[in-house]
Amino acid sequence: MQLGELANRLGAELRGNPLLEITGVRGIEEAGPSEITFVANPRYAGLAKTTSAAAVLVEPEFPEVATATLRIKNPYYAFARALGFFYQPPAYPPGIHPTAVIDPTAEIGEGAHIGAYAVIGACVKLGLRATLLPHVVLYPGVRAGNHFFAHAHSVVREACVLGDHVTLENGVIIGADGFGFAKNDLGQWEKIPQSGPVLIGDRVDVQANACIDRATVGATEIGAGTKVDNLVQVGHGSRVGEDTMLCAQAGLAGSSIVGSRAILAGQTGVAGHCELGDGVILTAQSGVSHSVPAGKMISGSPAFDNRLWLRAVTVFQRLPELLKRLDRLEKKLGEKA
């Protein structure tokens, strides 16, 4: 594909030779003379001057460089789109593998690909063009919309409901029993039935080995457009809004509420029954045991306002020095006494 055609398809302003032949996309330090790259972080702006790439996707105000540039408002998103022009994932044609086990009461929409050893339980309903790769298991009563894509060894438990364009990566478990136990009169833990399903909106991606538990009563809910990263745990009865990001190893205890467009960075934790408002950001490894108003950025464990946390961390790093100064001051005061 020529650079001029790529610019047109992306809707970018091209400054450079439109006849350059582009064969792929790559990171700015690895890209070669027939590949494009991008700069979205100002820290890497200097690399645009030294990259071997044929062209760089940048914001409209980016300084002029010798390398050709494609100027567009969101270069990172444009890079993602360009990647789709050159890389095509494996295609799975319609058909049902002879080893798949499908209950006769299941309803499967047109164009489905059902892989080897997949199991589809009673009264399951799948929309159009579903793709179930080997060893996927759908328990009885599962419903999934159009373009459902389940990678190998993912499991959806009984009565869970998934919207359109939902993708489950390898090893995802949707609707396993929540961690619900109550002590009897002898002090022994007894299991509480987990009766409520998981409800997942449209365009939700759940990455590898993440677990979204079913509810004791009611439902566990994941809003449309939300992205759930590897090894995330969503506890029973939790509710997550739309277009929220739950990053790797984040954990929500039971009955947590997270608003829309929130970001929970890696290894963050939310205690049960806490509510995080829309647009809340928890920085990495933060632990929250209280509700957080909309729009706040929170850090630390126990977590508090990010700006105050940054100041506190600065002071913490100076504690050895401050302790020495305090010791010297106490000695001087003792000598004077």
How would you describe this structure to a colleague?
With 337 residues, the chain is α/β, with parallel strands linked by helices. The protein has a domain at 3-86: Udp-n-acetylmuramoylalanyl-d-glutamate--2,6- Diaminopimelate Ligase, Chain: A, domain 1 (3-Layer(aba) Sandwich). Helix content is 15%, strand content 26%. It has four helices and 38 strands. A hairpin with a 5-residue loop joins strand 20 and strand 21. It is flat and about 95 Å long. The model has no long low-confidence stretch (mean pLDDT 95).
Break the fold down into its secondary structure elements and pairings.
Blueprint (H helix, E strand, L loop, with lengths): L2 H8 L2 E3 L8 E2 L9 E4 L16 E4 L9 E4 L3 H12 L8 E2 L4 E2 L4 E2 L4 E2 L4 E2 L4 E2 L4 E2 L4 E2 L4 E2 L4 E2 L4 E2 L4 E2 L4 E2 L4 E2 L6 E3 L5 E3 L6 E3 L4 E2 L4 E2 L7 E3 L4 E2 L4 E2 L4 E2 L4 E2 L4 E2 L4 E2 L4 E2 L4 E2 L4 E2 L4 E2 L4 E2 L8 E3 L4 E2 H12 L1 H18 L1
Parallel strand pairs: 2-3, 3-4, 4-5, 6-9, 7-10, 8-11, 9-12, 10-13, 11-14, 12-15, 13-16, 14-17, 15-18, 16-19, 17-22, 18-23, 19-24, 22-25, 23-26, 24-27, 25-28, 26-29, 27-30, 28-31, 29-32, 30-33, 31-34, 32-35, 33-36, 35-37
Antiparallel strand pairs: 1-5, 20-21, 37-38
